[in-house]
Automatic annotation (TrEMBL):
Pfam families linked: 2-Hacid_dh (PF00389), 2-Hacid_dh_C (PF02826)
Organism: Paraburkholderia ribeironis
Record protein name field: Glyoxylate/hydroxypyruvate reductase B
Organism placement in taxonomy: Bacteria, Pseudomonadati, Pseudomonadota, Betaproteobacteria, Burkholderiales
PANTHER family named among the record's database cross-references: 2-HYDROXYACID DEHYDROGENASE-RELATED, GLYOXYLATE_HYDROXYPYRUVATE REDUCTASE B
Keywords attached to this entry: Oxidoreductase
Superkingdom to which the source organism belongs: Bacteria
Catalytic EC class: oxidoreductase
Originating gene: tiaE
Family per record: Belongs to the D-isomer specific 2-hydroxyacid dehydrogenase family. GhrB subfamily.
Domain (D-isomer specific 2-hydroxyacid dehydrogenase catalytic): residue spans on this chain: 7-315
Length: 327
C-alpha cells in the first residue's frame, strides 16, 4: 500500500478519502527530524504553510507527488522537484472568490476605517455625533490598480468594476483580454499604475521577480492619498519601507493579510499605526473554502500517484521528464 505523509490536519472526510487509497501518516512539521524521516519512505505528501527544502527530500527516493493545500507554491523549490521527478499539485480556482472577498474587505475596511472606528465605539469613545475626525475615503468611483491580474485579481476586478463602479488598471507580464473586455481593465506599466491608483492591490505570486517589487521608490511613486492592499505574500513588499512610508505619510494607509514574519510579531510597528488594517492571513479562510481546498488537494494527490492527474499541476515539465521551469 502506498504511504502518504500529511503535515497539516485534514477534515475527517478528506482523511477518510485518502485512507481508502493509502496509508496516511500524520506528522507535526515542528518535529523536523521525524517529518524528514517520514518523507524518506513516502510515496506522496500533502500539507501547507511549511517550507519544504531540497535537503528535506534527500533520501526520499519513493516520493512521486506533493500536494499543497494552497494556490501559492512559494514554499517549494519547483525546479528541484522537477529534477527529482516529483509532481507538485496546487489548488487554484476553489479559493479565488473567498480570497477576493478578503481583498475587498481590506479595501473597504482601510478606506472607511471600519476596524479602527469599531474599536473606538467598543472603547466607549462615541460620545457625540461623529465629525471629520472620523470620516474616511470613498471607494466607489475610484481607481483600483491591480498588480497581478490573474484568477484572484480578476475576481477583485469584477467586484470593483461591476459592484463599485471603479476604474481598473493592472500590470501583468501578459495581457488579460477577458478583464479588459468585461471589466474595462486597462493594462499599464507599474509606474503608471502607481501614479494613478487610489488603491494598489498586489495579487502576484511570490517569485524571485516579485520579491520586494513594492519598495521605498514604488511607495514614493504612489499618491499620498493611496492605500496599499497586500493579500499576496508578505515578501512582495519591502515591509521596512512600508512601515517608513506609513509613519511618514508617504501613503495614506495599508490593508494587509500577509507579512514578512507570520504570525506578525506583537511588537511590529505596523500594529501601532491606526492607518493599518492587519489580518492574520485569512485570504481563503472560510469553512467552505478550506474544506474545498483540502478535498481538492487530496484528489490531486491520489490522481498524481495514479499517474492520471491532468489539471492543477505546477511543474508540468515533470510529466515530460524534462527539467527546468520558469516558476
Ligand atoms: P494567478 O492566477 O497565477 O495570478 C497571478 C498573476 O500575477 C497573473 O496574472 C500573472 O500574470 C501575474 N504575475 C506573475 N508574475 C508577475 C510579475 N513578475 N509581474 C507582474 N505580474 C506578474 O494566481 P492567483 O490564483 O490569482 O493567486 C495569486 C497569488 O495570491 C498566489 O500565488 C498566492 O501567493 C496569493 N494568495 C494569497 C492568499 C491569502 O490567503 N492571502 C490566498 C490565495 C492566494 P503574468 O503571468 O501575465 O505576469
Amino acid at each position: 500500500m502506498k504511504k502518504i505523509v500529511a503535515w497539516k490536519s485534514l477534515p475527517e472526510d478528506v482523511l477518510a478519502y485518502l485512507q481508502q487509497h493509502a496509508q496516511v501518516v500524520q506528522v507535526d512539521p515542528a518535529q523536523h527530524d521525524a517529518f524528514v524521516a517520514a518523507l524518506r519512505d513516502a510515496d506522496g505528501g500533502i500539507g501547507a504553510s511549511v517550507k519544504i527544502t531540497p535537503a528535506m527530500l534527500d533520501g526520499a527516493s519513493r516520493l512521486k507527488a506533493l500536494s499543497t493545500v494552497s494556490v501559492g507554491f512559494d514554499q517549494f523549490d519547483v525546479d528541484d522537484l522537477t529534477r527529482r521527478g516529483i509532481v507538485l499539485a496546487h489548488t487554484p480556482d476553489v479559493l479565488t472568490e473567498s480570497t477576493a472577498d478578503t481583498v475587498f474587505s481590506l479595501i473597504l475596511a482601510s478606506a472607511r476605517r471600519v476596524v479602527e472606528l469599531a474599536d473606538w465605539v467598543k472603547a466607549g469613545q462615541w460620545r457625540a455625533s461623529i465629525g471629520p475626525a472620523q470620516f474616511g475615503l470613498d471607494v466607489q468611483g475610484k481607481t483600483l490598480g491591480i498588480v497581478g491580474l490573474g484568477r484572484i485579481g480578476g475576481a477583485v476586478a469584477r467586484r470593483a468594476a461591476l459592484g463599485f463602479n471603479m476604474n481598473v488598471l493592472y500590470t501583468n507580464r501578459s495581457a488579460n483580454p477577458h478583464a479588459e473586455r468585461t471589466y474595462g481593465a486597462r493594462r499599464v506599466d507599474l509606474p503608471e499604475l502607481l501614479a494613478n491608483a487610489d488603491f494598489v492591490c498586489l495579487q502576484v505570486p511570490l517569485t524571485p521577480q516579485t520579491k520586494h517589487m513594492i519598495g521605498a521608490a514604488e511607495l514614493r511613486a504612489m499618491k499620498k492619498s493611496a492605500i496599499l492592499i497586500n493579500a499576496s505574500r508578505g515578501a512582495t513588499v519591502d515591509e521596512a519601507a512600508l512601515i517608513d512610508a506609513l509613519q511618514n505619510g508617504t501613503i495614506h494607509g495599508a490593508g494587509l493579510d500577509v507579512f514578512d514574519t507570520e504570525p506578525l510579531p506583537a511588537d511590529s510597528p505596523l500594529l501601532k499605526l491606526a492607518s493599518v488594517v492587519a489580518l492574520p492571513h485569512i485570504g481563503s479562510a472560510t469553512h467552505e473554502t478550506r474544506h474545498a481546498m483540502a478535498r481538492n488537494a487530496a484528489e490531486n494527490l491520489i490522481a498524481a500517484l495514479d499517474g492520471t492527474l491532468a489539471v492543477n499541476i505546477v511543474n508540468r515539465d515533470v510529466l515530460a521528464g524534462s527539467a527546468g521551469r520558469d516558476s
